Amino acid sequence: ETGVTQTPRHLVMGMTNKKSLKCEQHLGHNAMYWYKQSAKKPLELMFVYNFKEQTENNSVPSRFSPECPNSSHLFLHLHTLQPEDSALYLCASSQEGIGGASNEKLFFGSGTQLSVL
Amino acid sequence: GNSVTQMEGPVTLSEEAFLTINCTYTATGYPSLFWYVQYPGEGLQLLLKATKADDKGSNKGFEATYRKETTSFHLEKGSVQVSDSAVYFCALGRSTLTFGKGTMLLVSP
Predict the structure, then answer these.
(1) Which residues of chain B lie closer than 8 angstroms to A43, CB-CB?
(2) How far apart are CA B96 and CA A48, in angstroms?
(3) Among A31, A46, A33, CA closest to A87
(4) Which residues in chain B touch residue A90, judged by CB atoms under 8 angstroms apart?
(5) Average pLDDT in chain A
(6) A43 touches chain B (CB under 8 A)
(7) CA A54 to chain centroid
(8) Spatial distance between the Cα atoms of A23 and A112, rounded to a whole number of angstroms
(9) Chain A contact for B35, CB < 8 A?
(10) How many C-beta atoms lie closer than 10 Å to residue B87's C-beta?
(11) Which H/E stretch holds residue B64?
(12) Helix, strand or coil for residue B28?
């Protein structure tokens, strides 16, 4: 148990559906992240929120829309996805966020395994 | 930019065998180096880290040394167990991390 909880664990959706992934951390951390894990590819950083402000968006298509209502919760809203978006989506948090001295240790959730049909 | 290259897996070993998983990197500046581990059905967990050249990170019998001259951070363990079966990720960075593709380790009894 890392203190970062993701729901749902598994999600199957059609290309026309709208769904949301949820992440919650109870560690008092100030930064939260979305990563995409695809087979045989490096982990891809998608979004970073630092003190609830989005600080990075690594050229992610607009069909992925993040939301960070407070420092403990992070959402990833999905709409009109493509089959190539099927992957494991990992949420992570860290203590101080971008530029902090102790932000090097990331705490990951177990991920949401997404399948787009 | 930063990048991390790991050896292709899976690495298949018998219990008590010696493990080496190679990791090399390219980076600007002097980043910290990390090994993360992902057990089946779980997210990644920090295994060990090193923050400067010649530092050795160690945890749970695993160790890795930050080699600036060879830009490497190879993971080693003297005697693996079945419970070490997992995917291992090498990473570097400071404010955000750059990960490798991961190397799957399978240990049989």
Answers:
(1) 44, 89, 99, 102
(2) 9
(3) A46
(4) 43-44
(5) 88
(6) yes
(7) 12
(8) 10
(9) no
(10) 18
(11) strand B62-65
(12) coil
Task: Tell me whether B70 touches chain A (CB under 8 Å).
Answer: no
Measured between beta carbons, the chain A residues lying within 8 angstroms of B47 are: none
For residue A30, which residues of chain B lie inside 8 Å, CB to CB?
A: none
Q: What is the DSSP letter of A69?
A: E
- Tally of CB atoms within 10 A around A14: 10
Q: What percent of chain A has pLDDT over 70?
A: 91
The Cα B91–Cα B75 span in angstroms is 12
- Nearest CA to B33 out of B47, B49, B21, B19 is that of B49
**Full strand arrangement of the beta sheet holding A4-7:** A4-7, A18-25, A73-79, A64-70
User: In this predicted model, what pLDDT tens digit does every residue of A51-99 receive, in sequence order?
Assistant: 878 877 778 999 999 999 998 999 999 999 999 999 999 999 988 765 5
Distance CA A42, CA A35 (A): 10
- Given A2, A103, A111, which is nearest B95 (Cβ)? A103
Strands (E), chain A: 4-7, 10-13, 18-25, 31-37, 44-50, 53-57, 64-70, 73-79, 87-94, 107-108, 112-116
Which of A2, A106, A109 comes nearest B97 by C-beta?
A106
